[in-house]
Write a structure and sequence with these properties.
mainly alpha; 66% helix
């Protein structure tokens, strides 16, 4: 989260950082359930499978998948495609998602998250 707010870094790069935070958190949920997405199509698979194990993340999974496409544009297509508003929206979604993942882990897999639920 800290790196997403580095104003000296471009919105495109900060968007990619925030996106990877969402991807990592979603991957934790799948891994807790014993799932390991294949390497090919990994990002897409993670967000497609997330609602199957964490139903409360259905809307965010769809949003993060749309961000996946935006991230691909920022990395592989053309620089300068991400606006500050798009970045802010993703960071806000990530700030919502991380506590949800922690609470889900504490409820469904307490040995994997025995700590407090502070963010």
């Amino acid at each position: 989260m800290h790196d997403c707010g580095a104003s000296s870094v471009s919105p495109d790069s900060r968007f990619v950082i925030a996106y990877h935070g969402a991807l990592s958190a979603a991957t934790v949920v799948l891994a807790a359930c014993g799932y390991r997405p294949a390497t090919h199509g990994y990002h897409e698979t993670v967000f497609a499978a997330l609602p199957l194990v964490m139903a409360e993340a259905s809307e965010l999974a769809g949003y993060f998948d749309r961000c996946r496409r935006k991230r691909n544009q920022a990395l592989y297509d053309r620089f300068g495609r991400v606006s500050e508003d798009e970045l802010d929206e993703l960071v806000k979604a990530l700030q919502e998602f991380i506590p949800e993942v922690k609470a889900w882990l504490a409820e469904h897999h307490p040995p994997l998250y025995p700590g407090t639920l502070e963010t």
